[in-house]
Design a protein that fits this description.
This protein is α/β, with parallel strands linked by helices. The protein has 19 helices and 14 strands.
Length: 419
C-alpha cells in the first residue's frame, strides 16, 4: 500500500510542477521545495540536538507558536526545525519565525522522508492540529522518534474511523501522545483503541492571549476613528465585500467608521474595492500626510497590522465564512468585542462554540448583515454583552501550552535517563 501511495504522491507532485507554470502559488509550492535540503544542510549540523515542528499553513503556525516559543525557552541548547506544507504560511513567516531552520516539507516519499530525518535527526517531533503524512509517520515510527500531535481535532468523517481506514490508522500509531481540542476527538480515538489522549484544548487561545500583552496602539487609527464607533472587517474575500460595501453605502448618513482589511491586497483588487465605496475612502499606503479623521473608510493594503487594528475596534467582521473558509475569530474576540461571520464555520470548533454562546453571530445574506450591524452600532449595551461573552470565553480557554510543555519536559527527562 505504501508503494501505491508513493506512486500517487509522486504523480500529484509532477502534476503540481506542470501546473506551476501557470499558477504563482503552485510555483512557490514546487520551487520552494527544491531548497529544503539545502537549507537543512546549511542550518543543521550532525552534532546538533533538534526538535522538529510541522505545520500546514499560517493558521497552524499561529496555533503552534506559543509551544514553539516555550520549547525554545526550555531547551535553549536545541535547534528547532520548522516545516510548512503551504506557501501561504511559509512565505509570510520564513524570515521572522523563531526557529533555526524554516523550510517547506519535502513531498511525502520514502527517499525524501529518510533524507529529511537523516539531516534533522530530531529528538522529538510536534505536529500541529493535523497533517498526516503516512510515509513520514512510518519513518518516524521505524526510527522510534518521539512524536506528538497538539491542538488536534478529529471528526467521524475522517478515514481513520471508517471500516476501510485500517491503513490510515497505522499512521496514528506513530504518535506517543495526542493532545486534542475536545472530548469528541478523545472519544473517537478511544473507539479505535487509542487511550494515550489528553483533552488539552487549543493552543491558539494562548497565542491570542499573547496579543493582549503587547503594545497594540496605532496612532493613525485613533485619529481615523475620531471618537466614533468603528467596524473592523478583517481578512475579507469578495463574497464578504459585496455585502459590506452595500451596507456602507446604505448608511452614508450615519456617523460610523469602517476599516476593511482584505485578504487579497493586490493593487488592482484594492483599487477596485475603493471604487465601489461611496463614502470618503483612504488607503493605508496613502494615509501619510493626510488627516485620517477626514475619511469614513480606511482600506488596509498591508499585512501584519490586523491584530492591532482589532484592538481598536468596537465590533468586528471576520471574513472567509461566505467564501473558501473562515479566518481566525479568536483574534478579535479576545479583545472583548462582538464578532460577525459568514455561514460556513462548521469546521472551526471555536467558532461553533462562540456562535452557540452568542458572542459571535453568523449571517447568511445582506438582510441579516444589515440587521445585526445596525443593532451593534446603535446599542452599546448589546455590544458590551456580546463582547463580554467573547472575552470570558477566550480567557477561559487558555492554558493548553502549559499542559503540553509539562508532558514534553517529563518526556525529555525520561529520554535523558534512558527510561
Amino acid at each position: 500500500m505504501y508503494l501505491i501511495y508513493q506512486f500517487l504522491s509522486q504523480t500529484v507532485f509532477l502534476g503540481i510542477r506542470l501546473m506551476a507554470f501557470f499558477n504563482p502559488k503552485l510555483k512557490l509550492f514546487a520551487a520552494g521545495r527544491k531548497k529544503s535540503f539545502e537549507i537543512l544542510q546549511a542550518k543543521i549540523k550532525p552534532t546538533d540536538r533538534v526538535v522538529w515542528f510541522h505545520v500546514a499553513s499560517l493558521g497552524e503556525y499561529e496555533q503552534g507558536l506559543p509551544l514553539l516559543k516555550k520549547t525554545k525557552e526550555a531547551f535553549p541548547s536545541h535547534k528547532i526545525v520548522l516545516t510548512f506544507f503551504s506557501p501561504s504560511g511559509y512565505e509570510i513567516v520564513k524570515d521572522k519565525a523563531p526557529a533555526d531552520a524554516v523550510l517547506y516539507l519535502p513531498f511525502d516519499t520514502f527517499s525524501n522522508a529518510n533524507r529529511f530525518l537523516d539531516l534533522t535527526h530530531p529528538e522529538w517531533v510536534v505536529f500541529v492540529k493535523y497533517e498526516f503524512w503516512p510515509i513520514y509517520l512510518k519513518a518516524l515510527r521505524d526510527r522510534k522518534i518521539k512524536t506528538l500531535i497538539v491542538s488536534a481535532i478529529f471528526r467521524p468523517s475522517q478515514a481513520f474511523f471508517k471500516p476501510y481506514g485500517g491503513w490510515m490508522r497505522k499512521s496514528l500509531l506513530t504518535f506517543n501522545h495526542f493532545f486534542v481540542q475536545n472530548e469528541t476527538s478523545k472519544d473517537l480515538l478511544s473507539g479505535i483503541g487509542f487511550e494515550n489522549v489528553t483533552v488539552s484544548g487549543d493552543t491558539r487561545f494562548d497565542r491570542v492571549g499573547e496579543i493582549l500583552q503587547r503594545d497594540n496602539s496605532l496612532g493613525f487609527l485613533e485619529k481615523f476613528k475620531a471618537g466614533q464607533s468603528c467596524l473592523v472587517a478583517g481578512s475579507t474575500w469578495p463574497e464578504d465585500e459585496v455585502l459590506l460595501v452595500k451596507y456602507i453605502n446604505l448608511n452614508k448618513g450615519q456617523k460610523q467608521k469602517y476599516v476593511l482589511v482584505p485578504h487579497n491586497i493586490k493593487r488592482d483588487s484594492i483599487l477596485a474595492l475603493r471604487e465601489k465605496i461611496e463614502l470618503p475612502t483612504v488607503l493605508y499606503s496613502e494615509i501619510s500626510g493626510k488627516n485620517p479623521a477626514d475619511y469614513s473608510v480606511l482600506i488596509v493594503d498591508a499585512i501584519g497590522l490586523l491584530t492591532k487594528i482589532y484592538a481598536q475596534a468596537d465590533l468586528a467582521y471576520v471574513g472567509g465564512g461566505l467564501a473558501t473558509g473562515l479566518h481566525n475569530v479568536l483574534e478579535p474576540a479576545v479583545f472583548g468585542i462582538p464578532v460577525v461571520i459568514g455561514k460556513h464555520y462548521d469546521k472551526f470548533e471555536e467558532a461553533k462554540q462562540l456562535v452557540d454562546s452568542g458572542g459571535v453571530i453568523s449571517i447568511t445574506n445582506q438582510n441579516e448583515l444589515d440587521t445585526i450591524l445596525n443593532e451593534l452600532f446603535f446599542s452599546v449595551v448589546k455590544r458590551a454583552h456580546q463582547g463580554k461573552i467573547n472575552k470570558d470565553f477566550t480567557r477561559g480557554k487558555m492554558g493548553a501550552t502549559v499542559l503540553v510543555m509539562d508532558y514534553i519536559i517529563k518526556m525529555f527527562r525520561a529520554q535523558s535517563h534512558g527510561i
